[in-house]
Amino acid sequence: MANALQAVLNRAIQQAPKAEEKAAVTPPRRGRGSRSPVAAPEAEAPTPVVEKVRRPGRTGTRLIGGHFPPEVARQLRMLAAEDDTTVQALLEEAIDLLFVKKGKAAIAARLSDEHQAR
């Protein structure tokens, strides 16, 4: 019995990762999930740094967004299709209506048009 146990221990030592291989093992995750280390993917050639490509038409603009149920997005796209326009144009119209309601100048559509003319 002792010989069988020794054989198992010897195999475990032989199969244990070397120091270089241990560096490739990521530390265990904290919190939920597996507590055992997960091997990192094989080291590959470094990936080239890719510069972020910006669309010229978006230069000088800021994204304004929100999270809504899928039905809201679907209805907005349907309105755009029915009016043969874009969701962007409908949002410009809606924002201008909100500005006017709150006592501000309607500037969204005008500034968007000026920006597109550049």
Kindly describe this structure.
Helices cover 48% and strands 3% of the residues. The protein is mostly helical and 118 residues long. It has a domain of 50 residues. A two-stranded antiparallel sheet has the order 1-2. 1% of the residues are buried. The model has no long low-confidence stretch (mean pLDDT 80).
In short:
This protein has 118 residues and is mainly alpha-helical.
Structural features:
118 residues; mainly alpha; 48% helix
The gyration radius over C-alpha positions equals: 30 Å
The main pleated sheet reads as: 2 strands, antiparallel
Count of separate DSSP helical elements: 5
* Straight-line N-to-C gap: 85 Å
Q: Report mean pLDDT, rounded to a whole number.
A: 80
Strand content: under 5%
User: N-to-C SSE series?
Assistant: HHEEHHH
Structural class: mainly alpha
Q: What is the strand arrangement across the widest sheet?
A: 1-2
The low-pLDDT segments are: none
Number of DSSP-assigned strands: 2
Helix content class = 40-55%
Apparent shape? elongated
Fold topology:
Blueprint: H1 2-15, H2 19-23, E1 25-26, E2 38-39, H3 70-82, H4 87-101, H5 108-117
Antiparallel strand pairs: 1-2
